Amino acid sequence: MPAFFSRKRCILVALLLGTGVFSALAADNAAPAAAVSSKPMRPKHVDWSFEDPFGVYDRASLQRGFQVYKEICSTCHALSHVAFRDLGGPGGLGFSPAEVAAIAAGYKVPAEPGQQGKTADASGAPLMRAATPADNFPPPFPNERAMRAAMNGVLPPDLSLIVNARAGHSDYVYSIITGFGQKPPANEKMARDMQYNPYYPGHQIAMPPPLTDGAVTYTDGTKATVDQEARDVVTFLAWAGDPKMEERKSAAFSVILYLFLFTGLLYFSFRHIWRPWH
Which residues are CB-neighbours of 25 under 8 A, at least 6 positions away? Predict the structure, then answer.
């Protein structure tokens, strides 16, 4: 037998095959497995009443969306850039001044220092007062530390500008809050206390499903399905991020109409002045 095929070499080869060393080496040289994609799905498209150049907010949907925010979302998410007075008046949700005052009075905000300059009572609790229409919506927790402590270290985002701050805008927020309840693929391992949502970057989100059928009882009698609640609260959040949209569109239309008429006037003036030389 040639030296290469000596008995010792044959035994060594057999041992290597038996322990899978050659298989491991072959696997190392094989093409790498495709990585699990964590790219979010494209948001679902919804025909919003306020999207087109002449679009306006649906006032009934705005009021229902505010109800969803107040009863569900406000327990975790702030709306700190919106004042109560914005809910009424031109461009608001259609509430009367009395309704706005009543809504504001249902919230507590830090009181101004008293005559002795105190901002807390004898037990150290901050002095509070009923909010007025001039106040902004107060956050659900006094500070970030308290919020993280209550939310297992998670910091829920402020919703004042959430629609404007996310790519996909209204469609993205709608897709996120309606994207729960799906089973994750077998190759995607969920971290502890995380929820699968294919529309969220990484597909894992700490927020539990916020909406359920019948989560609110609409005052106008509308059936409160998850889809309806999502459409309404997204409409409200779109308004919160851009309460002057209708005013801006109206001004833009007036400017365009003026420029169109002014252009026509210049054209006919030019024709009249230069007609004798043509």
Answer: none
Hey, what domains does the chain have and what are their CATH numbers?
A: 48-81+142-180+210-271 (1.10.760.10), 83-111+128-136 (no CATH)
Residue 197 identity (one-letter amino acid): N
> Which of 163, 132, 152, 156 minimizes the C-alpha distance to 240?
163
pLDDT per residue as tens digits for the range 174-210: 999 999 999 999 989 999 889 999 999 999 999 999 9
Q: How far apart are CA 56 and CA 261, in angstroms?
A: 25
CB atoms within 10 A of CB 175: 23
188 neighbors 203 (Cβ within 8 angstroms) = yes
Q: Tell me how far the alpha carbon of residue 39 is from its chain's centroid.
A: 18
Phi, psi of 111 (to 5 degrees): -80, 155
* Ramachandran sector of residue 202 (left: φ over 0; alpha: ψ -120 to 50; beta: rest): left
